[in-house]
Amino acid sequence: MTMNKKKYFFLTAISAAIFQSFNAAYAAETLESSVDQQDDEIEQITVTSSRRVQVLQDVPAAVVAIKPTEFAKAGLTEVGDLVEYTPGFTLTKSAGQRGRGSITARGVSQLGNTAVVSVYVDDIPMTSNSGFAGGAGLFFDGLLGDIERVEMIKGPQGTLFGATSVGGAMRYITRKPSTDELRGSVNINLSDTNEGGFNQTYSGYISVPVIDDTLGVTISGFSEDNAGFVDRIDPLTGNIIKENADSSENKGGSIDLFYTPTDDLDIRVRALKQKSEYSGTSLIRISGEDKKPVYGQYIGDDQLSFNKYENTFVSGSLDYYFEDMTLTATSSFVKYETDSVVDFTAAYSGLSDLLQGNPPGTTTSVPFSSPVSSEKNVHELRLTSEDSDVFEWIGGLYYADESTTADQLGIAQPGDFLAFQVSFPSDYKEKAIFANGTYYFTENFDITAGMRYADTSMTLDFITDGPLAGGPSDEELPDANAKVKTYLLAARYRVNDDMSLYSRIASGYRPASSNLPITNPLTGEVLTQPFVEQDDLWSYEVGAKGSISDNFIHYDISIWTIDWEEFQAPVRAFGLNSLANAEDGITASGFEVSFDMDFDNGLTLVTNIAYSDSTLNSDEPNLNGLKGASVPDVPQWTASTRANYSFELSNNIMANISGGFRYTDSFSTAFTNGDSNNAAVDIKSDDYVIADINAGVKLNDISVNLYVTNLFDKKAFANVGATNIPTANGVFLDAAGIPVVPRTVGVMMSYDF
Known about the structure:
Largest sheet: 24 strands, antiparallel
Strand content: over 45%
Radius of gyration: 26 Å
Number of strands: 45
């Protein structure tokens, strides 16, 4: 999009907003938030997506605020469940496990090794900025913690949330510990999955005022035992070697202290730890484009024997309230570790014996492990002006230092013989300054402008050892340095108390990265870039939020287009993976429509529809993609609807019946141009509709909810992947899919006090 077109787009949007002031439509909050009607007044939903508390209708951006407790009653307790009911967001599963996969938004596919949607816990960034720590396929799933709401912010958030928020941001907003009353909750969730086993989840929290109106503490925890539903088969004998091999155990806990020694000072200190362990994945071997399971509907041959994912963070923050501004200082330490072990005995035991000079059969096992870790320290200092009807501003400083390690190890047993080791530790640093300001020309018309300047750097080492890795070596690769500016310009016009129109231009980026070299073994030529430059994304958006018919229908509508230049993407040569910047870029466009109908009889109906079209601007030979090719992992259509009917069953007993449908369109899983040398094969995922239903009763502080997810037991593959592997007998298609979780029937019991 040329600069003239950009200016035209923005000016047209502002003109449209002013012109609409003469219309007779009305508006209010966004659909996903729970809107309670009391005394014929609509509760004002507030969010902090702009780093200050704002009524949702006044935010010139597409933001969805979700109360996870409402979804938990229906048995929907993972981030992926929320995403499927949220327009404009997609979660692509990579293994069928909690916290594994890629969250994307608005056609910004997870290309490359760095995340495109940042995840925050309040002001704590949980997402890795390094492409060498698995951050593109990992995210923090904190729904089982003490979460007040989840804010899903669509479009690039480069000015306030920095790198890796090119598609959007997701924030867990936690409850502050209580300093004036005892409160808490205890929850028991028991369920049974068709073709699987019995699942158990226990969670709760207690918030205690230690010193009245001065010091409060909250302690929370959860334990989840997911029985799984995919059996593991021995492909040589055809025997089932483990039932429900994709089972998992998830545990976590946190402690949160809130101290207000004076009216002008708040101090908060928190610590959290979550750990997940898996015995396998949910991958199902499929035959090809027909996606027919090779061994059976829920039978796989994945040989993964162990997998873990662990999150830890410690943070401290203070807010000091001056007369006309607030000083906020936040420091955090975030660490995550992941490891997986696969049995490579069949492939490497004979070679191990040969290398060691041992008789055949000496090697009993060759476990292949790939431990990855990230340790990230972040410090942020910002000033926020008091609310004003003339000018509001926010500005701050940001510093991040992240060290990562990533290893691939093959150690033969017995004797701990190191067959091969490949390591690539990295270090990422970022210094940034940012500022946003909003000027109110009138009570109903304002413009927000913002900018962020970031100085980023990355170092990377390439270390090998072991005879299968060519012996010991240690190479320091070229550093990647960049100075990046991101911008925001938004206009909002409030037609009246019931309608807001806005337009928004924003940019985002992923940081420059050092790169792993790939050399042509025949010529010695280095085929890859020494480092990968940052990619830049611009988004252009117009939207309307409002209500009509005396608050009977609430709506949120947005139309957007995106230019993504020189995006970072994976490349492959001689069986090895690396990164490159695309020669051109991607153009994406789409819209989101949400309606929330609030009937007077206790019935509410929420409907979402989202469309996204994301394609290559030109031929990309390195990516094996042609001009106009659809970008992988981006469904064109997603939709959902949820209905809830609440009523009084008898004195002091309230009841509710809820149900919903969620639809995800099929999507491409790889670029392909028909080149016989292209290993990736584009086998599209399934399109599917999932139905969920629940019913419950509440007596005072005790509630019981019965639920069924995937009511009609829909069988479909939520994601697939396929690769051509050359063999002595020709080309073998290695293809697998992640199935939708089968029908699950359960009960959720809660005691809130």
